[in-house]
Design a protein that fits this description.
It contains 2 helices and no strands. The longest helix is centred in the C-terminal third of the chain and has 32 residues. The radius of gyration is 16 Å and the shape is elongated. Helix 1 runs antiparallel to helix 2. By secondary structure, it is mainly α.
Length: 69
């Protein structure tokens, strides 16, 4: 079970780092490319939605494991 916890912590960390990096990249590109602004706004919005859903899934997993343990 310790290995599964380590793997889940690593995956959560990768998701957080990736989402933050993608959001920063979209904001930098948004300021640089004015003609593609709507495209990068949509990508940044989708990144935030992905992050919220990913965090929710991990919280639900923790609740289920706590409930059944």
């Amino acid at each position: 079970m310790i290995t599964m916890d380590d793997i889940s912590i690593a995956v959560i960390s990768l998701i957080r780092i990736g989402a933050v990096a993608r959001f920063i990249y979209c904001m930098v590109r948004l300021s640089a490319a004015e003609e593609e602004a709507s495209q990068y706004k949509k990508r940044a919005k989708n990144t935030v939605i992905f992050y919220i859903i990913a965090e929710s899934i991990w919280q639900i997993k923790d609740l289920v494991l706590y409930y059944y343990s």
